[in-house]
Amino acid sequence: MILVCGGAGYIGSHCVEILKKEGYDVVVFDNLVYGHEEFTEDVEFFKGDLADISDIRRCFSKYNIDCVMHFSAYCYVGESVKSPEKYYYNNVVGTLNLLKVMIENDVLDFIFSSTCATYGEPEFMPMDEKHRQSPVNPYGNSKLMIEMVLKDYERAYGLRSIIFRYFNAAGASLSGRSGEWHEPETHLIPLILDVAAGKRESITIFGEDYDTKDGTCVRDYVHVLDIAKAHVLGFELLKKEKSSNHFNLGSEEGFSVLEIIRMCENITGNKIDIKKGNRREGDPPVLIADSTKAKNVLGWQKEYSDIETVLSSAWDWHKRLQEKYK
Ligand SMILES: NC(=O)c1ccc[n+]([C@@H]2O[C@H](COP(=O)([O-])OP(=O)(O)OC[C@H]3O[C@@H](n4cnc5c(N)ncnc54)[C@H](O)[C@@H]3O)[C@@H](O)[C@H]2O)c1
């Protein structure tokens, strides 16, 4: 059975959907601090907190777990700067608790959600896995710390891991099972769609004088279902090779903030009002992944990460969410 920690959250819930489709037995572990119980209705669910090691132990006693996919974390960069302790406790100590119980139970296969934020200021573009890792905020630090822990744990305890460094996860399940539903929301696409849906007055563009095609920041949006598919391939690789590896997951294409806004106007048929804001500290002008390694080693093929599918699936989910839950 695969334990999906954080499976009630955005990316974890999509991973659960794909794993179930592929015939895997899955149990979700989540404290629902940011997750949604609605995303666990058709799957085995254990409510627990990684901060409480006895919750994790009870979960491992109850289920016959042979691999852990770990999506649980706090992910707000700005908040991590203001409250680093909160981030180090949840993202680092929580993960150490989880790894401890895995080792106690001789469960030695681990898949970890890391981030392009571990790279810090870009030194070349597109960024591959050889790029220097030098995060510029506590969120990125907390993820890099776990990457380092995993190297040491493999050597000492034989714990094998696949580390995925995601760029911007976006889009939603085509089945309508789940989608992006963060509260508070900080990601660009759902914020723009809020404006399109009349829930928010305008979208603020932070900086229009970058050295990019139209002056606004350029990002790489990878469909959440493609991320989920990579996890299945990562699991198969772990079982076959019994050794650790790490991969970037990105669409390898860059779109500016302004381009995304214009495309959202086309898809939704609604005008999106824009406000001008100042640049945000630590926002690089361009972030684009080189995912060649995932393609070559895992055989990862992106199926959904063209920008039209990303935006239209996000919009379908957004409308559904408004009708059903809000
Ligand atoms: N969303 C992105 O674009 C993106 C990009 C790079 C990396 N990541 C990483 O991917 C992972 C998933 O991101 P997401 O966007 O799905 O976030 P999310 O907040 O939607 O999901 C995280 C889940 O973990 C749960 N959780 C948090 N702390 C917990 C704890 N102590 N015990 C049990 N459950 C806990 C939350 O309730 C939530 O359901 C995170 O680790 C994040 O750092 C996300």
TrEMBL record:
<dbReference type="GO" id="GO:0033499">
    <property type="term" value="P:galactose catabolic process via UDP-galactose, Leloir pathway"/>
</dbReference>
<dbReference type="GO" id="GO:0003978">
    <property type="term" value="F:UDP-glucose 4-epimerase activity"/>
</dbReference>
<dbReference type="Pfam" id="PF01370">
    <property type="entry name" value="Epimerase"/>
</dbReference>
<keyword id="KW-0119">Carbohydrate metabolism</keyword>
<dbReference type="InterPro" id="IPR036291">
    <property type="entry name" value="NAD(P)-bd_dom_sf"/>
</dbReference>
<dbReference type="InterPro" id="IPR001509">
    <property type="entry name" value="Epimerase_deHydtase"/>
</dbReference>
<protein>
    <recommendedName>
        <fullName>UDP-glucose 4-epimerase</fullName>
        <ecNumber>5.1.3.2</ecNumber>
    </recommendedName>
</protein>
<keyword id="KW-0520">NAD</keyword>
<comment type="similarity">
    <text>Belongs to the NAD(P)-dependent epimerase/dehydratase family.</text>
</comment>
<comment type="pathway">
    <text>Carbohydrate metabolism; galactose metabolism.</text>
</comment>
<dbReference type="InterPro" id="IPR005886">
    <property type="entry name" value="UDP_G4E"/>
</dbReference>
<keyword id="KW-0413">Isomerase</keyword>
<feature type="domain" description="NAD-dependent epimerase/dehydratase">
    <location>
        <begin position="2"/>
        <end position="250"/>
    </location>
</feature>
<comment type="subunit">
    <text>Homodimer.</text>
</comment>
